[in-house]
Write a structure and sequence with these properties.
Elements: E1 6-8, E2 31-33, H1 35-47, E3 54-61, E4 67-74, E5 81-86, E6 89-94, H2 95-101, E7 104-111, E8 114-121, E9 124-127, E10 133-136
Length: 140
């Protein structure tokens, strides 16, 4: 699974393109999974021989801009996780990470031999040039 940057809602990103619109309207207490991301979660689960896998999204401190995002397939979620199901795929986020990711969209991109998950968020304040760390505005 790839580690990717977050893109700002409605802002054109010169380096990476996503197939989902960046003009998202996700409720502040929700997390949306695009069809492309759901398909990738299901496909990756099958490759690993898992009947039903959940993509765990975790925010960790570090990187050039403040925090990085990690994606891992797990077989079950923890009791304190927030669980989202869309397009027959599941994503779990711990409550601390969800505070940062609330109102975002999980998408999948595939271009020039690179592919991975990306988060589209209206709360992005800045991201680094390597595309693997970011900073968010928690007041939005």
């Amino acid at each position: 699974m790839a580690l990717l940057a977050i893109t700002r809602k409605g802002k054109k990103q010169p380096k990476r393109k996503t197939t989902a619109s960046t003009n998202i309207n996700v409720a502040r207490d929700k997390f949306t999974i695009s069809e492309e991301a759901a398909h990738s979660i299901i496909a990756e689960s099958k490759k690993k021989g898992l009947d039903k896998a959940i993509l765990r999204v975790l925010i960790k401190g570090g990187g050039c801009s403040g925090v990085t995002i990690c994606y891992t397939l797990v077989s079950e979620f923890k009791g304190n996780d927030v669980l989202f199901t869309e397009h027959n795929a599941q994503v779990c986020i711990d409550r601390k990470s969800f505070r940062i990711l609330a109102g975002s969209l999980l998408n999948w991109y595939n271009e020039l031999g690179k592919s991975g998950f990306c988060i589209v968020s209206p709360r992005l304040k800045r991201s680094c040039s390597c595309g693997e760390s970011f900073d968010v505005d928690l007041s939005i």
